[in-house]
Fold EF-hand domain-containing protein.
Amino acid sequence: MDDNSRLRVHEVLHRKGDEITEAEYVYDEIHSNGKIRQHHVHVKREEFERLAKTIKKPWLSFNSFTKVTRALLMGHHAAEDIPEAFRLLDTDDSNTIDIGELAAFMPAIIPNSNSYMLLRYFQPADTNNDYRLNLDEFTAFIKKGVVRDLALGRN
């Protein structure tokens, strides 16, 4: 996205009965000349559940995961969701999120992502260099739109 454009985003939750089957994030990139380019990011239950089976520890339900993706992919547009996303990601109740907790589910959002790739973007938010983000650091990380930009192929 260039400096003369702005981004508008909205979330669409697809359901089958009471079950969320997919979270879709629709981005409208609005350029100064009035031209709009649309981008879509899809987070599917099927892919999340396939990934969850490979993780050796208890993990989030897909419905909880959509609360995390809302914050990660909507950034400052979902600022009120950041504390809940942090709480859900802090699986060891340490009041911090380490790179492993954050990277474990990233392939459901960004295919072929890994902890090494994420570390490159994670480190600037880690102000005390402990490879963990507290709530303030996590909030700054989210508001920068790092995960959104990665999902949109902008890095």
Summary: The helical segments are 45-52, 62-74, 82-89, 99-103, 106-109, 115-122, 135-143, 146-151. Residues 125 and 141 are 6 Å apart (CA to CA).
